[in-house]
Amino acid sequence: MLYEKLGKQPAIEQLVMRFYERVYVDDLLRPLFPADRQRVEHAQIVFLTQLTGGPKQYELYDERMNLAMIHRLLPIRRVHAERWIELMTAAIEETIQNQEAAALLIERLRIGAMNVLRICDAHQDG
């Protein structure tokens, strides 16, 4: 399972911390994120844990709040999605020792980022 190959919860928590260290000082992405970084990091940990096959934790959240619902009203454009992937890739490469697992996670997140971009584009065009 990918979750184990990544290094389980400690690796995911470290990855998320390193990723948001980059995001919250990035001139392009910072305006898209709320001030409550701790809440954002926690939500990302929960998301990545489940995405990679770890323990399900979303019972704590409203199940209607999926990626589409969370992002649809944000002014996300291709440049934002590409920068998000760039920063996440750097954090993954810095954090995850297993290269195969890192590459798989990067690919899953790239697909997810492009899906979010399509949702945002469709909502803004509609």
Descriptive overview:
This is Globin. Keywords: Heme, Iron, Metal-binding, Transport. InterPro entries: GlbO/GLB3-like, Globin-like_sf, Globin/Proto, Hemoglobin_trunc. Belongs to the truncated hemoglobin family. Group II subfamily. The chain has helices at 2-6, 8-23, 37-51, 67-71, 78-95, 99-125. It has 126 residues and is an all-alpha fold. The termini are far apart.
Task: Estimate the strand proportion.
Answer: under 5%
What are the segments in which pLDDT stays under 50 over at least 5 consecutive residues? none
Q: Count the helices. How many?
A: 6
Radius of gyration: 14 Å
* H/E element sequence: HHHHHH
Helical/strand content category: mainly alpha
End-to-end distance, in Å?
A: 39 Å
Number of strands: 0
| Largest sheet report | none
Produce a short descriptive summary:
This is Globin. By secondary structure, the protein is mainly α. It contains 6 helices and no strands.
Write the layout of secondary structure elements.
Layout: H1 2-6, H2 8-23, H3 37-51, H4 67-71, H5 78-95, H6 99-125
Organism: Exiguobacterium antarcticum
InterPro entries: GlbO/GLB3-like, Globin-like_sf, Globin/Proto, Hemoglobin_trunc
Family: Belongs to the truncated hemoglobin family. Group II subfamily.
Structural descriptors:
126 residues, mainly alpha, Globin-like, 6 helices
